[in-house]
Design the sequence.
């Protein structure tokens, strides 16, 4: 086979790889076109007024409201309050999750002893704990932080345990046979091989935490935050355009957080993904 | 007489079983005992003892007549409708997610167009959508099912897209060269190859579905586990509240276990392949 045939064959198969999906510019253009098309269709549907516009406002009205909200200091303050509680809760969960996850994952006995407890506690939905949280800790910042920490602990803990537990035993034995101390083994073998899993857990936890915190603020009628802003707007004469605009901003924040963390993940752990999962 | 040397004496076998049981459950049992001692000691109305919670739970749900399998009315009024809505919404999400996912995974253009919208819709917090869903779909069962389906479709959809895109091109080319029609190509090649990913997405969706079930029952509801929990909070019936949380944990655990069982059946061939590849 001559070289050009090999190259075209290579290009054909490599272009079907998961992340290589044509030139970036083309993808972006299509993405923008998709968004515009989506908005146009939504505008058309809402203009048909199957549901009265007081209940389901036009897309253009919502976009105009979006513009209002971004420059509304009260709403910006709510965004800050939400992100603040989210960040603190996430930090707590990360510290606890990584510490306990490393302990549990590195000991076979601890791994086997704790797995039934974790399997039972993990599926408790965080929203089910909101009513209890409100009674125990009120409706303020501490309740929000505790609930976010509870909700985000599980993905981080689970992925850390998995990452640490599944380190290649041959690599560990090789490290030991090179006479590395236990800290050196941990730093050079366990940490690099578990880090991608831990980070994936953190990314999942971060986007889950945002949904949980907005939900908590909404359901617990907390004093401040995006969720309480939405609750106020929807109960106060049903300003649906404001509700939709605020929910849209919450969604955009979620996309931004997930997107930037995914980009960091790709960059930090390129070596991990290059070899396939 | 031939002696079976591979088999250890029955007493040692029993000993090993006790040991492995102790290892698996000692921490869990220890935690429950510690919980009992601590709550009995502090004697707070906010923290009933686990024994009290269990007794109350039996009163609530298992005090019915024998012809109803001892299930009380509360089970028929709250628990079964909740589970029904959860499973209906989740099944809808799995079906729609898989179908749309196969479409988008097969077509690069379609995926490029839809990706930003999908990412955005996926990031919308479910509870924030409740006011809009109430206006669009009313306050009946349909609204709750649609909310659950809408909130849980994304992991299935995105995982299916991912799985379909990662199908080995050689497999597809082979199927093509045997002139398999598109329907057979999808049913025999693409879906099985993407199945591990689809199942993983459905698993994530299942735990999301429990969350959304509770959320949907917090608002404008007349029955359901979420409704009972909120009711218990408003009337300060702390033991009822703890019972509700316990029930949700149990529900999540059982659904997960059930799903794990089905997963094992669906993907046994996949696991076998992987183990062979590992060796």
Sequence:
């Amino acid at each position: 086979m001559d070289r050009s045939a090999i190259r075209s064959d290579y290009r054909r198969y490599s272009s079907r790889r998961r992340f290589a999906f044509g030139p970036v510019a083309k993808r972006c253009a299509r993405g923008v076109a998709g968004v515009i098309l989506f908005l146009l269709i939504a505008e058309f549907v809402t203009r048909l007024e199957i549901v009265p516009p007081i209940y389901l406002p036009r897309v253009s009205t919502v976009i105009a409201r979006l513009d209002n909200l971004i420059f509304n200091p009260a709403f910006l303050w709510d965004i800050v309050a939400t992100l603040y509680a989210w960040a603190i809760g996430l930090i707590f969960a990360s510290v606890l999750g990584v510490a306990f996850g490393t302990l549990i994952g590195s000991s076979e006995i601890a791994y086997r002893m704790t797995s039934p407890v974790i399997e039972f506690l993990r599926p408790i939905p965080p929203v089910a704990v909101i009513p209890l949280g409100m009674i125990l800790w009120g409706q303020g910042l501490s309740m929000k932080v505790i609930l976010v920490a509870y909700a985000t602990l599980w993905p981080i803990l689970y992925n850390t345990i998995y990452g640490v537990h599944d380190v290649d035993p041959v690599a560990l034995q090789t490290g030991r046979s090179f006479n590395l101390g236990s800290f050196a083994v941990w730093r050079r073998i366990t940490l690099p091989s578990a880090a991608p899993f831990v980070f994936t857990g953190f990314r999942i936890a971060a986007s889950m935490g945002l949904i949980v915190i907005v939900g908590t603020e909404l359901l617990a009628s907390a004093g401040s935050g995006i969720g309480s802003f939405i609750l106020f707007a929807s109960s106060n004469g049903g300003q649906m355009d404001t509700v939709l605009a605020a929910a849209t901003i919450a969604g955009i924040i979620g996309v931004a957080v997930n997107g930037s963390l995914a980009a960091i993940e790709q960059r930090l752990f390129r070596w991990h993904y290059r070899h396939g999962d | 007489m031939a002696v079976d040397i591979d088999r250890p004496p029955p007493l040692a076998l029993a000993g090993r079983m006790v040991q492995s049981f102790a290892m698996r459950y000692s921490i869990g049992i220890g935690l429950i005992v510690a919980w009992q001692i601590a709550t009995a000691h502090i004697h707070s109305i906010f923290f009933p003892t686990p024994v009290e919670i269990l007794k109350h739970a039996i009163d609530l749900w298992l005090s019915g007549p024998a012809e109803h399998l001892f299930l009380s009315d509360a089970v028929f009024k709250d628990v079964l409708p909740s589970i029904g809505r959860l499973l209906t919404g989740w099944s809808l999400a799995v079906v729609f997610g898989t179908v749309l996912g196969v479409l988008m995974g097969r077509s690069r253009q379609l995926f490029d167009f839809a990706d930003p919208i999908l990412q955005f819709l996926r990031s919308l917090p479910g509870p924030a959508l409740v006011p809009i869903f109430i206006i669009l779909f009313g306050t009946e069962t349909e609204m709750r099912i649609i909310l659950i389906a809408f909130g849980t479709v994304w992991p299935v959809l995105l995982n299916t897209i991912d799985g379909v895109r990662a199908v080995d091109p050689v497999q597809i080319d082979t199927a093509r060269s045997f002139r398999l029609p598109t329907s057979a190509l999808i049913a025999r090649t693409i879906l099985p190859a993407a199945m591990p990913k689809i199942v993983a997405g459905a698993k994530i969706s299942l735990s999301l579905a429990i969350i959304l079930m509770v959320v949907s029952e917090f608002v404008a509801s007349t029955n359901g586990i979420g409704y009972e929990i909120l009711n218990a909070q408003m009337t300060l019936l702390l033991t009822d509240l703890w019972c509700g949380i316990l029930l949700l944990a149990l529900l999540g655990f059982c659904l997960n276990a059930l799903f794990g069982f089905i997963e094992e059946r669906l993907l046994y061939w996949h696991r076998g392949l992987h183990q062979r590849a590992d060796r």
In short: Chain B touches chain A through 61 residues (CB under 8 Å).
